[in-house]
Amino acid sequence: MHVLLASDGSPEAFDTARLLGRLPFDVKPLVTVVTALSTSQFEMLSSNAGTKLLEVERAAAEEQFAELSEILASATDRVDLVIARGHPRRLILKIAQEQQVDLIAMGARGHWAIHRAILGSTTDFIANHAKCSVLVVRSNAPQALKENPAAPLKVMLAYDGSPLSQEALRQVSQFNWGDSTQLHVRMLLERPTLLPDDVVYDELTMSEQGKLLDQLVEAAAFQCPSTHAVTETVHVGSALRSISEKHRNDLLFIGGTGKSAVVQLFLGSDSRYLLHHGECSIWIARPTEWSETSSKH
């Protein structure tokens, strides 16, 4: 497992490292920390002031790397550092492709973002364009982990039967979660908007999908206790957000696209909704060598 941790020195970069350190990978991952230095279209960086700025930024990046390495020390095989000039989004995707990483991990917002109301533009771009899985960490989600590092993780998997939803299921099953982890799998079926809440729209499909989910969860053999359910909803993304908040999840696994996605590369509407409006950290699953060659399956 090879993880690229995008670091800009923001609190969320350190929260990302803390959450990575809590994830029970089947094999300790290699982590590459990537920091982008300033660029300028006015060639300022060729001046004495620009050279000094780069020196200051590089020194800060190396200091931050030392702190990140300490956080990740017990959970990783090795932690490397890459510092380079370039636009963050382009640099991160370039290095991810060159090193064939399995996961890009980054904060939902950071110093790179001109803070949008909900999600930083760099994170949004990478979540949509990365060819590997992406972990987007929100600082409010790891708060309990900072206050109590031994607190059990609360994890949810959103499943809709699409190929990348199946990939998310496969990736969740790779972890050695342990008995203290709380895992919930939820399948949501869309229903008409005008139907009363207490009326089931399609009982036959609910029953069929419930049996299918029973079989999938049994076959997955999660390394922790788990619950699962199939329910109907008008808006899948909004319902998943509400369920996740109710369960007070630390991490939500979703497929990179869903059944309604038109373009494979970009996130489906429900995935985008959760990425922008969810309260917990989001793992966007895309096919990786790590999940395909795991010794467990």
Automatic annotation (TrEMBL):
**Family, as annotated:** Belongs to the universal stress protein A family.
> Could you tell me which residue ranges the UspA domain spans?
2-138, 154-286
Q: Which InterPro entries match?
A: Rossmann-like_a/b/a_fold, Universal_stress_UspA, USP_A, UspA
Q: What is this protein called?
A: Universal stress protein
Question: What is one Pfam family matched by this protein?
Answer: Usp
Q: What is the lineage of its organism?
A: Bacteria, Pseudomonadati, Planctomycetota, Planctomycetia, Pirellulales
Q: Which domain of life is it from?
A: Bacteria
